[in-house]
Amino acid sequence: MRSKRFCAILWLVIVLISFTTSAQSDVSKWLTKADKTVLFTKQKMSLKFVGAQNNNPTIIVNEKESFQSIDGFGYALTGGSAQHIIKMSPKARTALLKELFATDGNNIGVSYIRLTIGASDLNEKVFSYNDLAEGETDLEQKRFELGPDRIDVIPVMKEILAINPNIKIMGSPWSPPLWMKTSYDARGGMLRPEFYAAYAKYFVRYIQDMGKEGIHIDAVTIQNEPLHPGNNPSLLMTAPDQAIFIKNNLGPAFQKAGINTKIIIYDHNADRPDYPITILNDPDARKYIDGSAFHLYGGKIEALTDVHNAHPDKSIYFTEQMVIEDPNESRINIVSPIKRLIIGATRNWSRNVLEWNLAADPENKPFTDRGGCPMCQGAVTIDKDKVTRNLAYYSVAHASKFVRPGSQRIASNEPQGLPNVAFKTHDGKKVLIVANSREKAQTFNISFMGKLVSDTIGSDDVATYIW
């Protein structure tokens, strides 16, 4: 009797081990095809790791070599984006926000949002939170008021936080109040030194007042595109001026107010890595700084690694890139933003990837006059309650749903024509994002812990693998 019982237990253990091993070897796949026949869809057939060898190109994933932690993937929630979302019917708005920010089912799990501090070029009109007549001043920010954001940005953010309370939120200004500038104009000009302290208090009030609304600002950048004064609104801020403002005003103001919001510098193109490096070389400024932020309208994504190598103790962020497509085209150029941004930025130490921007209408409105962006397409196009999903939606989805905050990038090689990036999630799952940049379909292997899984994806297709 004892022998039979022992055999039964042994058989059960063997079955459980076999089941566990089999489950661990199953690889799920989410695919987007360039011909639009498949758009971010989970494939029905799972793949399995086996021991067999072959001559196909092989992506070797090595979880023993790890790099930066990931904060999230997402978009800018501009005032214009919020304007369209808040005007949807409650039912349609709830459905859209759940699809964007929840992680279950087919929802895409956006985990990072960038807000504009005041207006950006994707608002109907320019405003700050302390608009005064020319010649007036308010050094103590007694007239500070979030006003315009209370109509759309704040209520939309509250609905997002109800879906995902842990979403990371960054704030970025396009311009200080006009009375603080060398010219009383939303475009260009510089921050007058006598108003540095007042502007630091402006940041403090923004963080405090948003906090009172239940919106925690995790990080701020000092100035959106500080070397592009032609936008509306905009500001020219040189690296030496940004360093002075941080070390003498903003850093101490945050410290005095007990604010732990991260201070992030630069927030502009990858063609000027010298800008953040110069500021970080200043010990009095760098002690207040968490890291540097980049866009990719100029320069090479590898410049992010140059900044990391110069100051490896400081974080790297990717905060903006416009990703657009012609909705009438028969193909979707999904491989481009995946290769340049999702793969490119994270392989060069970025903790996040944010695309520009979340939503617009069919005419890409609103945008400001005299320097707004008439070609800035949203990740979704909103026409009353009708929602169209665009290139930025699908490119972010391939990462945001699976690479949750706290995941770590792990090592993977890059066979020719197969750019990729790999991550290990907090619960031990592995995520591999692969783009086929070749002109024909490619069969390849994924190697993990000595075993292989083989798959084929078409030219310009993108797949995310999870196991």
Offer a few descriptive terms:
TIM Barrel, single chain, Glyco_hydro_30, 28% helix, 467 residues, eight-stranded parallel sheet, globular, 2 domains, Immunoglobulin-like, ten-stranded mixed sheet
Question: How would you describe what is shown here?
Answer:
Helix 6 packs across helix 7. Helix 4 links the parallel strand 6 and strand 7. Strands 1, 2, 3, 4, 16, 17, 18, 19, 20 and 21 form a ten-stranded mixed sheet that branches. This protein is of the alpha/beta class and 467 residues long. The chain folds into two domains: 99 residues, Sandwich (Immunoglobulin-like), CATH 2.60.40; 335 residues, Glycosidases (TIM Barrel), CATH 3.20.20.80. The radius of gyration is 24 Å and the shape is globular. About 4% of the residues have low confidence. The relative contact order is 0.18.
User: What ranges have pLDDT less than 50 throughout 5 or more consecutive residues?
Assistant: 6-24
Q: Compute the CA-based radius of gyration.
A: 24 Å
- Average pLDDT: 95
Query: What structural class should be given to the helix and strand makeup?
Result: alpha/beta
Largest sheet: 10 strands, mixed
Q: Tell me which CATH architecture of the largest domain applies here.
A: Alpha-Beta Barrel
Give the CATH level 1 class of the largest domain: Alpha Beta
Number of domains: 2
Strand content bin: 25-35%
Helix fraction? Answer: 25-40%
Figure out the total of helices: 11
The CATH fourth-level homologous superfamily of the largest domain: Glycosidases
CATH topology of the largest domain: TIM Barrel
Domain Glycosyl hydrolase family 30 TIM-barrel: 70-403
Keywords: Glycosidase, Hydrolase, Signal
Domain Glycosyl hydrolase family 30 beta sandwich: 406-450
Family: Belongs to the glycosyl hydrolase 30 family.
